[in-house]
Amino acid sequence: MVHTGEQLSFTAEHGQHRLRALLSTALADGSAYGLAVPLDTHLRTRLSGYQMQANAIQGKWPSVDARRITRASLLHLHALQALDASQAGAQHRDIAVALFGADAVRMRWTADGELRAQVRHLLTRAEGFMRGGYLALAGVRQQHIDVPCSAPGDEPAR
User: Fold this and answer.
1) Which residue in 44, 47, 62, 116 has the most C-beta neighbors within 10 A?
2) Domain T6SS Transcription factor RovC-like DNA binding spans what residues (predicted)?
3) Contact predicate 95/67, CB 8 Å
4) Distance between CA atoms of 133 and 117, rounded to whole angstroms?
């Protein structure tokens, strides 16, 4: 907050929203105020932002958006993390430790076990994304004929 004689300048932030205001020090609590906005072709697209600013000045901040974590989004995240680790030279067991925790790996890791199969599946899934499967995930039609699967994650295990 900066006080410059007759004006008070402040910036307030809430989540991704930011409000910058320059207010007269003559304003008292409950006083009416005006908002000057440029009248141009972009006015309609900025109206929701102006409404948010007006609400913020009155102390009504928008709720912070909490992204809903779905099983599919977690699966995609784990697949890409596994691929990054693999390309960096990590062994399958190390990838499992990073994704599922050291205790789970210590108790459930075997040469033909379920955790190792999950890591292999995640790597196969991520490699499918790399070969163009991300286009199907994004809803864009496949352009490449060398991608044998119809959806990412449906690739045969190696």
Assistant:
1) 116
2) 37-138
3) no
4) 21
